[in-house]
Amino acid sequence: MKICKASDYKEMSRKAAKIIAAQITMKPDCVLGLATGSTPIGLYKYLVKWYRKGDLDFSEVTTVNLDEYKGLPKTNNQSYDFFMRDNLFDRVNIEASNTYLPDGLAEDSESECERYEKLIRKLGGIDLQLLGMGHNGHIGFNEPGEAFDLATHCVDLQESTIQANKRFFESADDVPKQAYSMGIGTIMKARKVLLVVSGKDKAETLKKALYGPITPKVPASVLQMHPDVTVVADAAAFSQMERG
After folding, report:
1. Annotation marks residue 136 as catalytic
2. Is 29 a catalytic residue?
3. Does residue 226 sit within a domain?
4. Which residue range(s) make up the domain with 16?
5. Sheet (strand 67-69) strand order
6. At 181, which CATH number?
7. How confident is the prediction for the chain on average, in pLDDT?
8. 90 catalytic residue (yes or no)
9. Does the annotation count 67 as an active-site position?
10. Cα–Cα distance between 140 and 223 in angstroms, integer?
11. Segment 8-34, tens digit of pLDDT
């Protein structure tokens, strides 16, 4: 596991974006696993900036996203499909047909999960998976529990996750209660993993994830078992590391 400390959110975003840019440069037709939420926004801005300067080419890149809310159409401005188009896809030269997310409006949840798993396998797997981390240690929407969910699945979101996401909606009642998410097993099959974490409010959880026991009660802790993980976090997120 490689640990990369940044002074602040801006530097964290730039360092993480450089890792993704290097992956695209080394393998122009790579498969990127992408994440949503507030943490990756800064790094997406850098990728767009470098594309506009002529330093990056997304024309051969394929993307698969970690998750999507169940019940939201793509046109809803809180859907992750909308988020990705707004923050990255519509701002670079990636082919729309090469961008994939779970279908939030799929009627048969089990069939949708199977479809997404087969899609990832058909693409040859994920070269680099970008992850954020929730306050409770979730990655994707893999919530703390008694066991790791291995494959793409439909998740009942925990109250802490709903409360964390309610700032994006008019109220907590408007936050979807379920989501589709890649499973831990799916994430762990990625050839490389890039975890980005920002903020003092996640410091204690990050410490548990990197140095605590591997447990489904802290889903991100499973990354300790991955052979190629890079963690890029700001000083605030690393603030608990020196404490016993």
Report:
1. yes
2. no
3. yes
4. 2-196+210-231
5. 67-69, 178-181, 153-156
6. 3.40.50.1360
7. 94
8. no
9. yes
10. 13
11. 999 999 999 999 999 999 999 999 999
CA distance linking residue 116 with residue 114, whole number of Å: 5
Q: If 0-12 CB within 10 Å is exposed, 13-18 middle and 19+ buried, where does residue 217 land?
A: middle
pLDDT tens digits for range 64-107: 999 999 999 999 999 999 999 999 999 999 999 999 999 999 98
* Count: domains in the chain: 1
Of 60, 135, 136, 204, which residue is the catalytic one?
A: 136
CA diameter of the chain: 49
Q: Is the dihedral of CA 153, 154, 158, 164 positive or negative?
A: positive
Residue 204 lies in a domain: no
Which of 68, 81, 112, 143 is an active site residue?
143
Given pLDDT bands bounded at 50, 70 and 90, which one contains residue 242? low
Structure tokens at 66: 């970690």
Could you tell me if residue 243 is inside a domain?
no
Instruction: Name the active-site residue from 112, 117, 138, 153.
Output: 138
| Whole-prediction pTM | 0.94
